[in-house]
Amino acid sequence: MDTWTVLLIGGPAATRKTSVAKTIAARCGAEALQADDVWLALQRAIDPDTRPTLHFFARETVWDRPIEELVTAMRVLADEVSAALEPVTAHHLRVRDRIVIEGVWITPAFAARKAFGGSTYDGAVRSVFIDERDQTAIRDVMLARGRGIQEWLPRRQTAMVRMQAGYGEWLREAASAQGLPLVAARPVETLVDRVLTAVN
Fold it and tell me: Can you give the pTM of this predicted structure?
């Protein structure tokens, strides 16, 4: 029996977090929220001069930078978006409205928190990180789902895949350090059930 009010699903891009979140939300009578939507809202509300981190990946030239720099930029941006998710999480906990929040911007530090909005909610927040270590698998999923990446120049595609793999490595290490569950992205057919088993 699942007892969570807020379920956080993190992981690098192209690990099927969105489809898993939607399936679990439908199955458990919860809402679903993509952290990407929060990032987009922050970009619209806050201009680049005020918060350049939010707009870092909007520049085409960014993909010529070293992969380590791109991974660091993702980590910094994830901290900002995770901070913006705090009041959303606190609200759903306070009113006991179930929600599944997923996205690359959920950090292990945020997912491991016990208090939100000044109150502690023991066991009401569960977290899991979906793990994919194969860059070919990441690329294949990215290309299959579309979203415009198939139109990118090959160098940009490669940089994106390598960045996600590097970011995923950091997430894996940070999640393990926090004692948070990791679930392999494959086999896909059992992913939803394995995520639910991990959080319950």
Answer: 0.97
